[in-house]
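Teaching assistant's notes for section 4

Start the section by putting this record on the projector. Ask students to predict, before seeing the second block, whether Glucosamine-6-phosphate deaminase will look compact or extended. Collect guesses on the board.
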Amino acid sequence: KVYKSEETASVKVAKRIAKIIKKRQEKGKNAVLGLATGATPVKVYEELIRLHKEEGLSFKNVITFNLDEYYPMQPDENQSYVKFMDENLFNHIDIPRENINIPDGTLAKEEIADFCLEYERKITEVGGLDLQVLGIGRTGHIGFNEPGSAPNSGTRLVTLDDLTRRDASRDFGGKENVPTKAITMGIGTIFKAREIILMAWSKKKASIIKKAVEGEISGSVPATYLHLNDHVEFILDADAASEL
Ligand code: GLP
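Reveal the predicted structure now:
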């Protein structure tokens, strides 16, 4: 779906999320959301905050799992996804703290494998993801599933692509400060969500969107694996869709 602007598209996505939350509330159940970081979902989160503050949307029944986190990363560092989520969403809504799950960038190396299995188990335990929102990196990554990721991959420690680190270098004040690794949900983890929405805005994303939408399914552009899934939607602004 192509919208005129990022704003219009983001409001639509926020409305979809609010609908899921309310539907589950009516049944006395939790809504389980897979969330993303980066610039892409920021306006969706802004609209969710507005719906909370102005229209009384409650997040008391919402459980969230974030896609990824840099490794190593302390939660109070400026570039941490914990901080990002707090500042851009969680601090402004009524979600119970214990319902928030983000991969832990503070683990010792030998603890990571167990943590990742536990992350997957927790998602299953709460009934699976009702919706996963995704951005896309210029390497075609979803989460931090870089080129070479397997379609059935689970949550794991990965090595970041050079282009991803270059794109992150502004946030870190130089590429040399960007961690070389991250913990990310796998493509297999993402695929288990009942609905998947990939969002992309601006001309900067136009060429990777062309590859992701029109290219052959290939491990060299992990987002093309989304073609293997029948409940995926790409939501784009006119600029991101301009090469299609
Ligand atoms: C980041 C995140 C991804 C995100 C992507 C695009 O590195 N790990 O989950 O989708 O890169 O970022 P942006 O939305 O800022 O363009």
